[in-house]
């Protein structure tokens, strides 16, 4: 303990080593690393950077998204500011566009949905310009987590990023929940859309529970930010935190956790598809890797959300010591986002207990068998 250093005021090899390791996982020119303690801090800092670089104040985000608990982030996180009883509502400098969902949204054809949903971002930009304001940034996860495990339609972020950059704004990828190999096919969820953001934010899995978060951006943006203000964080990225982060990367690499997430995720998706053939309450299956969702419905034609049933199933599973969660705009999505060591045996157990409990719940509520 005499050698323990939890202050980031001075240079330390552990900090530099981690920054170099982390940026190897990112495409150029994302190479400048800022350390903080939480995902909310990371997203707040990213918003400040975008405002400093662009000269604008306006932020665009996606309906149903959650980006953190500071006041600025709540202003454009409709997952929070649309909550019943929250009177301030959306912030004055925030715009929210439709969730790009091909199951419940307005645009359901996968071939055209990406462009059509992206067009809404251009419309939001036009409204910002019409009131004499300037866009600073667009925030989006590569897969929407609190929104209900929404996989973005093909071409969505490519089209959106073009609209945002043409307007002088920055594109911010929030990887706080979805990064570090969880999606299986890629290390970062934004890579599933074949784009390169201007800023990437990270948290949660970066320290496997230890309070650490990171913002990575380009030298050009970092230089512009440095001209407007200084940034310092007493504990963010201290040597102990960076030692933890290096250890987490060691485990991800040594145990092949990205590949593991893809393998077990495919097993789960196959099992989910079998459950869908049997259980009428399953309306949609979505996700990739260990980031999966089951959208439960009362009626397949109307797609009426089965919110109460979803809640009953997750509480039944909890009594069996199996933890899943309930999310999405209607709280009808059974969300699975387990530790990345979640095994094939764990997947088999989950599928078995889902099958059993769905059968009992369907009988209880009088659903016809498929």
Architecture overview:
With 370 residues, this protein is an alpha/beta fold. Helices cover 41% and strands 17% of the residues. The chain is built from 11 helices and 14 strands. The chain is globular. The chain starts with 12 loop residues before the first helix and ends in a 6-residue tail after the last helix.
Give structural attributes:
370 residues; alpha/beta; seven-stranded mixed beta sheet; five-stranded antiparallel beta sheet; 41% helix; globular
User: What structural class results from the helix and strand content?
Assistant: alpha/beta
**What is the average per-residue confidence, as pLDDT, rounded to a whole number?**
95
In sequence order, what are the helices and strands, one letter per element?
HEHEHHEHEEEHEEEHHHEEEHEEH
Give the % helix. 40-55%
Rg for CA atoms? 21 Å
Distance between the termini: 62 Å
Q: Biggest sheet, strands in spatial order?
A: 1-9-8-7-4-2-3
Largest sheet: 7 strands, mixed
Number of beta-strand segments: 14
Uncertain segments = none
Q: In one word, what is the shape?
A: globular
Q: Count of DSSP helices?
A: 11
Q: In percent, how much strand structure appears in the residues?
A: 15-25%
Topology:
Layout: H1 13-23, E1 32-36, H2 39-54, E2 58-62, H3 71-76, H4 78-81, E3 94-97, H5 110-130, E4 135-140, E5 143-144, E6 150-151, H6 156-166, E7 170-174, E8 199-202, E9 213-217, H7 219-228, H8 239-254, H9 257-278, E10 282-288, E11 291-299, E12 304-305, H10 307-319, E13 325-327, E14 333-336, H11 344-364
